[in-house]
Amino acid sequence: MSELQVEHVNVYYGTNHVLKDISMAIAPNTVTALIGPSGCGKSTFLRLFNRMNDLIDDFRYDGRILLQGQNIYASDVAVEELRKRVGMVFQRPNPFPKSIYDNVTYGLLLQGVRDRAVLDHAVEHSLRQAALWDEVKGDLRKSALALSGGQQQRLCIARVLAVAPHILLMDEPASALDPISTAKIEELIHELKQQYTILIVTHNMQQAGRVSDKTGFFNYGQLIEYDDTRTIFTQPHHEQTQNYITGRFG
Amino acid sequence: MNSMARNRLADRIFRVVGLLATLLGLLLLAIFLWGLLRTGLGRLSGQFLSSLPSRFPERAGIYTALLGTVWIMVLTALLAVPLGVAAGVYLEEYGRKRRWAALLEINITNLAGVPSVIYGLLGLEVFVRFLRLGSSVLAAASTLALLILPILIVATREAIRAVPRSLREASLALGATRWQTIWYQVLPASAGGILTGIILALSRAVGETAPLLVIGVLAYVPFAPSQPLDEFSALPVQIFNWISRPQHEFGVNAAAAIIVLLVITFGLNGVAIYLRNRWRQQLP
């Protein structure tokens, strides 16, 4: 069974039709890369899964999105519960202006977890998962804003992992980082795939090729092609895809 | 003369005009302060601060008026701050896309421009007469609270609007409710701005005279207020009373009292500026 099932989804901002009849099935424990030129709708698509688009005033949609068989836009779904299961990492590192420790425990505190031992364990476990533990373990009380950009982004990943989601959404998680930090994040994505289902929006073709199992190419709000990453990069069926990945437009 | 030279000349002229305009304002303020200090500074003493009002100018002091001002400041803050901050948070975080919220917004902005004497009339009718509070500390504080409410609401909204969107998104994406996001992220991040707004609003309230006169605050009260329903005097009312007397000595007293009032407002503004600068440095 697929972890996520997208069925004939259309999205509108006011009268602007930004996603057109998208269907897609995503298997558990895979990395799916979403690529396409700026403004093609891939970020909007990503934000459907944790319902972040709900924050936009004139957002409308139709179609169905099933998470493990359950429609996430059904009226009885609590958005807060959904967002605990579907975590998100943003383009720019956005740690809270608090200590490293408090950043990681934030999601748990929201759920009412106050037990010191549980929190301590979650902090170490999540920071280890995000490959940040060794760099910060001596100084968990330090402000998160004092970390480097790459460290901040891994902290943001740790913060999401502490809530124990099933799915990770990543919106160009490395685009604001230097090459070394980027390599670390990619390595991390590879590790995390064992336990999570990951969707990643990226502008970097090499990155999509390196980290993902499947790739979806978007253009003008349509899903032009969705296939194994290897197929997309070696023998795409559509000329648009071919042109985009070889850098002829976009 | 080519256009480049002309532009440069215009630039230089504007700089001179701007400088003169700034200096004029500062000069007038300096003259005012100089006159005030020369007249009033000699009168300032422990005796002046701790004496009751009197019909003999050399024995009169501002003890009761000073305490009255402190009382209304604290009560006004207690009444206005929770209401103003809550209304600001509501309008910014919850009511933003509703049509009637837009209507409210226009009205609040207009309210901020209503002359203070009108608020005095409202206070007289509602608090003094209808609620039978008399010319008490509570009636005055309620009136001043209404007066500064629009300022507080606008300041709160501006401070909240300055909180980066990424912070809210980070919180919401971790499963926080809207209220949790406001409480744990938005309010702490905007606290500096809100506090600055509160202090500036209070420093405005402290100097208000017209509404207090309208609701009948007395100049001669021989005791300091001990509870909210007591009658009282306040510095601006005392100053107004002294200035309108014919004897020169009372004019000196008024100058001295004005110095005290200025110290209070400048002090409050200083704290506000300090907080604003600290808050700016903290923003990511």
Please trace the helix and strand order of chain B, writing H or E for each element: HHHHHHHHHHH
* Share of β-strand residues of chain B: under 5%
Instruction: Output the radius of gyration of chain B.
Output: 23 Å
> What's the gyration radius of chain A in Å?
18 Å
CATH architecture of the largest domain in chain B: Orthogonal Bundle
Number of strands of chain A: 10
Q: What global shape of chain A is seen?
A: globular
CATH class of chain A: Alpha Beta
Taking all residues together, what is the mean pLDDT of chain A?
A: 91
**Approximately what portion of the residues of chain A adopt beta-strand conformation?**
25-35%
Assembly state (oligomeric): heterodimer
Order of helices and strands of chain A: EEEHEEHEHHHHEHEHEEHH
CATH superfamily of chain A: P-loop containing nucleotide triphosphate hydrolases
- Mind describing the biggest β-sheet of chain B? none
Please give the count of helices of chain B: 11
Look at the structure and give the CATH class of the largest domain in chain B: Mainly Alpha
| Low-confidence sequence ranges of chain A | none
By CATH's scheme, which homologous superfamily of the largest domain in chain B applies? MetI-like
CATH fold topology of the largest domain in chain B:
MetI-like fold
The rounded distance between the terminal residues' Cα atoms of chain A is 34 Å
Keywords (chain A): ATP-binding, Nucleotide-binding, Phosphate transport, Transport
Pfam families (chain A): ABC_tran
Organism (chain A): Hymenobacter jeongseonensis
Protein name (chain A): Phosphate ABC transporter ATP-binding protein
